[in-house]
Design a protein that fits this description.
The protein is of the alpha/beta class. The protein has a single domain, classed as Rossmann fold (3-Layer(aba) Sandwich). It has 9 helices and 8 strands. The protein has an 8-stranded mixed beta sheet, with helices on both faces. Strand 1 and strand 2 form a beta hairpin. The longest helix has 25 residues. It is globular. The N and C termini lie far apart (77 Å).
Amino acid sequence: MGALTNIFIVVAIIAILVISYIGMNNTKEVSEEITETNTEEEIQNAYSVFSEPVYEIESRDLVYYSGAKGYLAKPKDGKHPGIIMIHEWLGLNEHIKAMADKLAGQGYTVLAIDLYNGEVTTNSSRARELSSSVRGNQYEAIKNMKAAVKYLREEEKVENLATLGWCFGGGESLVMALNDQSLDATVIYYGTLVTDKQNLSKINNPVLGIFGANDSSIPVSSVNTFDDTLDELNVENEIYIYDGVGHAFANPSGMNYAKEETQDAWDKTLDFLERHLK
């Protein structure tokens, strides 16, 4: 009986460890989920860290690809560089549209795209399903993003153009850098990284990477490998890792929001885009 009891104890311990491991993995991206702990007033105050608009803007929804309705924000007057903005794993929600407005106010024609066929969620489980579906069919996602590039170049007469994304969108921003040699810059906010040298050799433009040191889903070790590999390939890059913050720290509507780090990252983003697009 003693031996049998010991076997049961070992099996129970293994089961607990497995369940704990699964739980940890399933919560890696929960920080992107909108939380009710922030009131509307608190969220609006949090957005104040982003620069005051330099240009008066206009915006509208539009179809730029079959089944995909994006959000276009741009200065009312003049011709400006373009940004393909890629949403987090929750979809093209009001937060992303607000960020498109913020960037447009700095003198950019911003097309915030939709990779979820119009679906927006606040549920982490559904967000995981949607983002996994896109990652499982990157061919279609790339077609979608290239259609957005084509729209800005042909309809908005944009010349210099960059991609920018957060979280899930950060990873897709990198995907575009690997698949579109016409881009002039790539901005990645804590997105899933590729570290393979052969793949990264396809990048033909400067890269800005923004990451949190406490991000369990994007380990610092992978960020450092990404940085080192880009250096070896002579791909111009600026990689910043912020101490003490985790995943999605730059989202004012999220639970991991970090005001000072967000403001610094935004300033670095604007500086990077101005140097490479204007």
